[in-house]
């Protein structure tokens, strides 16, 4: 009887779930729908459990695959024809894909466009620096997404975003943009700009 849902399938699903909150910002940038980025951020607290589940499920799948094969009455191995999706090769592919999904947050930043720092003609005239508190960021992918949206504005000279601190520090030319536009750019990502403070330079 065919199993409708195999262990490798379960393993790759739990691996996907563990990094979905970090994969969504990348997909949002590619699709041009920034607001979808934080859709699965609620999964972040459960990430350690998804990782643990993936390791256990795939570990058990490998145990089943590598355990001694059944023998007949003479002690000889019984030859069995295994479909590809039940083979060691397929399980190996699933394991590699799962590992890539689990580690996605550590390399998510490579998928985001790089923006050059904008040069200001008279840098001392109208430069302001603010710190904005942001709700909903969970990984480096979230940081890069916020940076990418803010960098679309004119007059941005420096951005530092931290999901751990839940903030973004932005240096900008007040003649080209303003605080409301920066906060709006953050909100367009699906994360929420809560409040801000001006930093003296």
Structure, briefly:
By secondary structure, the protein is α+β, with helices and mostly antiparallel strands.
Describe this structure in words.
It is built from six helices and four strands; from the N terminus they run ααααβαββαβ. It is an alpha+beta fold and 201 residues long. It folds into two domains: 7-108, no CATH class; 112-199, Alpha-Beta Plaits (2-Layer Sandwich). A four-stranded antiparallel β-sheet has the order 2-3-1-4, covered by helices on one side. A hairpin with a 4-residue loop joins β2 and β3. The radius of gyration is 24 Å and the shape is elongated. The mean pLDDT is 79.
Q: Which features would summarize this protein structure in a list?
A:
2 domains; 6 helices; alpha+beta; Alpha-Beta Plaits; 4 strands; 201 residues; single chain
Overall radius of gyration:
24 Å
Task: List the domain count as a whole number.
Answer: 2
Number of helices: 6
Biggest sheet features: 4 strands, antiparallel
Shape: elongated
Please estimate the helix content.
40-55%
**Low-confidence parts:** none
Strand content: 15-25%
The strand count comes to: 4
> What class would the helix/strand composition place it in?
alpha+beta
Task: Write the H/E string, N to C.
Answer: HHHHEHEEHE
User: Roughly what is the average pLDDT, rounded to an integer?
Assistant: 79
Neighbour order of strands in the largest sheet: 2-3-1-4
Determine the N-to-C terminus distance: 70 Å
């Amino acid at each position: 009887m065919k199993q409708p849902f195999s262990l490798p399938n379960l393993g790759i699903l739990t691996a996907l779930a563990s990094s979905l909150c970090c994969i969504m910002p990348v997909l949002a940038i590619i699709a041009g729908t920034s607001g979808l980025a934080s859709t699965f951020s609620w999964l972040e607290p459960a990430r350690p459990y998804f990782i643990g589940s993936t390791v256990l499920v795939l570990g058990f799948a490998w145990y089943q695959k590598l355990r001694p094969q059944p023998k007949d009455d003479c002690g000889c191995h019984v030859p069995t024809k295994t479909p590809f999706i039940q083979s060691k090769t397929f399980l190996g592919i699933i394991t590699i894909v799962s590992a890539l999904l689990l580690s996605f947050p550590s390399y998510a930043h490579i998928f985001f466009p790089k923006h050059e720092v904008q040069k200001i003609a008279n840098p001392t005239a109208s430069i302001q620096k603010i710190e904005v508190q942001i709700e909903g960021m969970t990984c480096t992918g979230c940081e890069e997404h916020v940076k990418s949206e803010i960098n679309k504005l004119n007059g941005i000279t420096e951005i530092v975003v931290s999901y751990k601190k839940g903030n973004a520090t932005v240096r900008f030319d007040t003649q080209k943009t303003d605080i409301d536009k920066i906060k709006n750019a953050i909100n367009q990502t699906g994360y929420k700009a809560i409040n801000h403070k001006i930093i003296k330079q």
